[in-house]
Amino acid sequence: MNDLAIRSLSKSFGGVRAVNEVSFDIKRGEFLALIGPNGAGKSTCFNMINGQLASDSGEIWFEGTKLTGKKPREIWRLGIGRTFQVAATFNSMTVIENVQMALISHANQIYRLWRPAASLHRERALELLAQVGMRDAADRPSRELAYGDVKRVELAIALANDPRLLLMDEPTAGMAPKERNDLIALVKRLVIERGISVLFTEHSMDVVFAFADRIIVLARGRLIADGDAKTIRDNPQVREVYFGTGKTFSKSEASS
Ligand code: ADP
Ligand code: MG
Asked: How far is the CA of 41 from the centre of ligand 2 (A)?
């Protein structure tokens, strides 16, 4: 079954065709990497899926519901989450309070109730923090966290909304290689455990090839390849885009 179906999606900025007739699907439970050089149109795709940006033409469907034309909040409510929308208040709260706020916000969407943050959802918040390896840091001030740990808490916050599809545009930006690998490995584990689908961008080819179930490649707004790691590695057009003709991907030739 297709979770998400994108059909002939296009978006121009002035004369630039940022996304040009792009079509692809995401299946339920799939860990799908969207790669391509800087300016390829990856973020523009993400922003059309999450509703922040209106498309010029084309359609986006999620579980049989048409998303195109819907507002970000409606799309979020349908079960599409995204990471790294940290609230302005993040640093003023403890780790667990941040996750509890997300749980309350999610509950309000569904049940329209409100209770004090301190008591509510603590057990559930602790479970989420345990899933991202941050349970021991629950009562620490968020502002004291190391960068990689903030990313883990952000992931717990995204999961608090119980998304069925999670959008992650450059989740590991600014991270060291080892941290990148660990975060993506963690997300992959959660994808398998929870049966959610993830669309993500990642600069390290090593990480993409190691973890993605499938990879789609954008170049100058066009989708030029769609397949598993081997298919993408062997694709002449993809090699051309990344390295110029003839060269192949090898370890640590990371860039997107
Ligand atoms: P990527 O995420 O793959 O690096 P983007 O989707 O951010 O690429 O950008 C695709 C193209 O669209 C680039 O040429 C970029 O300069 C242009 N672009 C993106 N957002 C805007 C915007 N808000 N206004 C004008 N041009 C934009
Ligand atoms: Mg981008």
From this structure: 7
Distance (angstroms) between ligand 1 centre and the Cα of 225 equals 20
Cα(18) to ligand 1 centroid in Å equals 6
For residue 117, the enclosing domain spans: 91-144
| Ligand 1 lined by 40 (C-beta under 6 Å) | yes
Q: Going by C-beta distance under 8 Å and a sequence separation of 6 or more, which residues neighbour residue 161? A: 76, 81, 102, 105, 106
Same domain, 20 and 70: yes
Distance CA 98, CA 88 (A): 11
DSSP state for residue 51 in the 8-state scheme: T
Each of the 256 residues of the chain gets a pLDDT tens digit; together they read: 668 999 999 999 999 999 999 999 999 999 999 999 999 999 999 999 999 999 999 999 999 999 999 999 899 889 998 876 566 678 889 999 999 888 888 876 555 555 554 567 889 999 999 999 999 999 999 999 988 899 899 999 999 988 999 999 988 888 888 889 999 999 999 889 989 999 999 988 889 999 999 999 999 999 999 999 999 999 999 998 887 655 556 544 444 4
Distance separating alpha carbons of residues 232 and 224, to the nearest angstrom: 10
- Which CATH number characterizes residue 43's domain? 3.40.50.300
105 and 122, same domain (yes or no): yes
**Residues 112, 18 within the same domain:** no
Find the ligand nearest to 256 CA. Answer: 1
Q: Which of 112, 128, 144 is the last residue of a domain?
A: 144
Structural domain total, the chain: 2
Q: Using a 6 Å cutoff on CB, does residue 18 contact ligand 1?
A: yes
Rounded to two decimals, the pTM is 0.89
Query: Amino acid identity of 227?
Result: G
My answer on whether 202 and 125 are in the same domain is no
